[in-house]
Every structure is written in structure tokens, then in C-alpha cells.
């Protein structure tokens, strides 16, 4: 194979993501069919949407028959973080040619973490290495969600609490970020705005309110946060 070195390296580096995405994807597939949807919606969503947190949120949107505007706004806010950290990859993706649109589409938190924390091998053809890394990560999620949906459609599972699986992953990632950064400012702001929205804002507007307030406070206290 022409790019076997890039593929092998990408696979080796993506193994930790494989362990997480197959399990979380499986949970998503199970949860989706438990709400009465056909199994094939899981692979279709994982192929064309591929946004772990948003896919879990989308199940609830479909279940309560939320409007398109509400779904669009919530989706934008849920994935807004990718716009910010994606900017740091513009230079890296500059010479990726026709592969660039897919690399942008397939960028996730975990893929970004791999791209920015693991030193690139100078002998690798970068654009194909990036492509294989993104494609492999998506394939793990795709396979996990498909298998979970098919199994869930044929075997009855108790899915109580399963929707919390991705939240649990984000909690773990948040704790790891806290340990590495040692900066309490953003965490305190996020906690305060979340509690405020939880107590005083209707459930369907809680997430958007918390995110908007967090962004406003982060801009207000930007200098202090950066100094810390």
C-alpha cells in the first residue's frame, strides 16, 4: 500500500480513541433504538453528523419534537468549542489539499488532542497521516454505534442512565484538563453559570443560557484568566 506507513502510525496512535469511541458509540446505538428509532439511523448519523455529544443530545431533541431553530441554535453552541480550537490547526491543515474539508468535518475533541499532543514523524506524509487518523477515529464511532443499534434492536437492554455515558467522559476530560492547567478561573465560571441556569432557567433553555453567560464572563475576566 502506498501510504501504509501513515496508516500504521495513525492506527497505533488512535488505539486509545478506539477503546473509548467503540464503547460510547455502542451506548449511543443502544440508546437510539431504545427510543423507538430504526437501527439504521445510528450508522447514518455517525457517517454524516459524527458529533458524539450532539448525537446524544439529538436523541432528546427528536423525542420531544423540538423545532428546527431550537435544534440549530443548541447544535451551534454545543459544537462552538471546535471553532476555537480548530483555528489552531489552520496552519497544519494548510497543505492538505482536497482532504481539508474532510479533516475539518472529522475534527473531534479526541482527534484534536492526538494531533496537538503527539509529535509528528518528519518522514510521514502529513496530509495522509491526518486523513487516516481522522478516518480511523470516525470508523470506531461508526462501528460501535452500528453494532450497538443492531444489538439493541434484537435484544432488550435496560438503558437507564446510559445517556450519561458521554457526560461521564466529559467529566473525566474536564478533570484531566484541570490537573494539567491548574487554572481555576474557567472552571469556576462554568460551575457558577451552570448552577444559575439550572436553578433559574427553563430546562430547554438551560444549556444555551449557561454557555452564553460563560462566554460573556470569560471575555469580561479575560485578562485575569490569562494571567493565571
Describe this entry's structure for a reader.
It is a single chain. This protein is mainly alpha-helical and 228 residues long. The protein has a domain of 158 residues. 75% of the residues lie in helices and 0% in strands. The chain has 12 helices and no strands. Helix 1 packs parallel to helix 3, helix 1 runs parallel beside helix 8 and helix 10 runs antiparallel to helix 11. The longest helix is centred in the first third of the chain and has 31 residues. The model has no long low-confidence stretch (mean pLDDT 81). It is found in: Cell membrane. One of its GO terms (cellular component) is plasma membrane. Its main location: membrane. InterPro entries: Brnchd-chn_aa_trnsp_permease. This is Branched-chain amino acid transporter AzlC.
How many beta-strand runs? 0
Distance between the termini: 49 Å
Radius of gyration: 19 Å
Q: What share of residues is helical? A: over 70%
Shape: globular
Number of helices: 12
Alpha-beta classification: mainly alpha
Give the overall pLDDT as a whole number: 81
Membrane topology: Multi-pass membrane protein
GO cellular component, one term: plasma membrane
Family: Belongs to the AzlC family.
Keywords: Cell membrane, Membrane, Transmembrane, Transmembrane helix, Transport
Keywords:
228 residues, 12 helices, single chain
In short:
It is found in: Cell membrane. By secondary structure, this protein is mainly α.
Helix and strand topology:
Blueprint: H1 4-34, H2 41-48, H3 52-63, H4 68-78, H5 80-87, H6 100-105, H7 109-117, H8 126-154, H9 165-181, H10 184-200, H11 203-220, H12 222-227
Helix pairs in contact: 1-3, 1-8, 2-8, 10-11
Amino acid at each position: 500500500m502506498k501510504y501504509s506507513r501513515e496508516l500504521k502510525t495513525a492506527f497505533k496512535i488512535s488505539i486509545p480513541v478506539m477503546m473509548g469511541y467503540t464503547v460510547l458509540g455502542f451506548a449511543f446505538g443502544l440508546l437510539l433504538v431504545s427510543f423507538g428509532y430504526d437501527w439504521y439511523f445510528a450508522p447514518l448519523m455517525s457517517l454524516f453528523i459524527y458529533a458524539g455529544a450532539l448525537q446524544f443530545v439529538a436523541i432528546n431533541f427528536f423525542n420531544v419534537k423540538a423545532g428546527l431553530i431550537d435544534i440549530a441554535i443548541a447544535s451551534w453552541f454545543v459544537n462552538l468549542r471546535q471553532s476555537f480550537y480548530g483555528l489552531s490547526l489552520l496552519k497544519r491543515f494548510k497543505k492538505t489539499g482536497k482532504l481539508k474539508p474532510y479533516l475539518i468535518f472529522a475534527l473531534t475533541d479526541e482527534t484534536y488532542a492526538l494531533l496537538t499532543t503527539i509529535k509528528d514523524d518528519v518522514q510521514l506524509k502529513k496530509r495522509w497521516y491526518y486523513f487516516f487518523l481522522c478516518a480511523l477515529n470516525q470508523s470506531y464511532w461508526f462501528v460501535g454505534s452500528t453494532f450497538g443499534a443492531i444489538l439493541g434492536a434484537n435484544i432488550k437492554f435496560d438503558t437507564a442512565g446510559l445517556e450519561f455515558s458521554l457526560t461521564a467522559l466529559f467529566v473525566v476530560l474536564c478533570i484531566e484538563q484541570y490537573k494539567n492547567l491548574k487554572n481555576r478561573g474557567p472552571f469556576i465560571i462554568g460551575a457558577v453559570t451552570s448552577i444559575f441556569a439550572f436553578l433559574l432557567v427553563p430546562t430547554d433553555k438551560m444549556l444555551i443560557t449557561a454557555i452564553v453567560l460563560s462566554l460573556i464572563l470569560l471575555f469580561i475576566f479575560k485578562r485575569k484568566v490569562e494571567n493565571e
